[in-house]
Amino acid sequence: MPRHQKPNPRSVKIHRSYAVDEAARMLHVHKNTVRAWIKHGLPTIDRERPVLIHGLDLFCFLTARRDTGKQRCGAGQFFCVKCRAPQTPALRMVDYIPLSRTAGNLQGLCPACGTLIYRRVSLARLAEVQADLEITFPQGVERITDSP
Q1: Does 130 reside within a domain?
Q2: How many CA atoms, within 13 angstroms, populate the side-chain half-sphere of residue 132?
Q3: Which helix (H) or strand (E) holds 121?
Q4: Which of 40, 68, 96 is the last residue of a domain?
Q5: Residue 105 CB partners (closer than 8 Å, separation 6+)
Q6: What is the total count of domains within the chain?
Q7: Is the pLDDT confidence value at 142 over 80?
Q8: What is the predicted pLDDT for the residue at 4?
């Protein structure tokens, strides 16, 4: 598993108990990672060896750990991947890039680092996301068509 991916709690069976090495194998992490989770609050069944972890406890621990890192974007904010934080686009100006009849991307510049930031939005929910942003709808270039 690549280093940037987090363990998937959906692979945990909640009615099963896991030894440290079994949990590590199943989640594609090192045994020491599971031991560190235990030091950081992952409950174990008892203090005896082998150390056993109840599946429901492991599932809840991983789900809570995943959810604490999430940052929701408010109205008028986009998530900047480079800054790793929600940002309001520079000068509050964005472009709407249509992807289909009903949805598209809002594109702007991150004021902190200058990279392009995007937010997917449906036309029906555009007013909710807009807040006080100035949205421009770029016009496509007309193409030469066959004339009769």
Answers
A1: yes
A2: 4
A3: strand 116-122
A4: 68
A5: 96, 97, 99, 118, 119, 120, 121
A6: 2
A7: no
A8: 54
